Amino acid sequence: MNGASRAGCDCGDAATMQRAQLAQQLRAAARSQIHGANGGVAGSTAIYTLADPRDVRCARYVGQTRDPRRRFAQHVHAARLWLPDVTPWWVRSPEERPLFAWIRALHSDGGRLPFMWVAEWAEPGADPLAAERAEIMRLLAQGAGLLNAEARLLGAQLPLL
Prior knowledge:
single chain, alpha+beta, 4-stranded mixed β-sheet, 6 helices, globular
């Protein structure tokens, strides 16, 4: 059923069913799609990447969190995968729309969800924003097509070494 034919029907039950299926898929993905999440000490911050599960070495997003599983679920939930294929209008910041559009495109291609890799744990007291930016710069220097809003800003400032 395409988006045009959905618009004229009451799809509440279908949406509820789809959301329940997504919740089940998300619980399974938390076991298989998140790696390195158990390495931090109390109070540390994970610096993570999201990638296409078909090519996990090609990061598309870099972030930071103290709870990788919860943050993974937030990313997937914010993409509102139960809605018909549309531009993510609900995302307030236009800079964040490419990430959610990418997650939606992954999911529409075989029900895939992003792969989360915890690249490092910033110790308590360390600056997680600096660690996140360093990871963004490292990946940009390798030619990664990151979707971070920061990547567009920092990418214009790559240091010449």
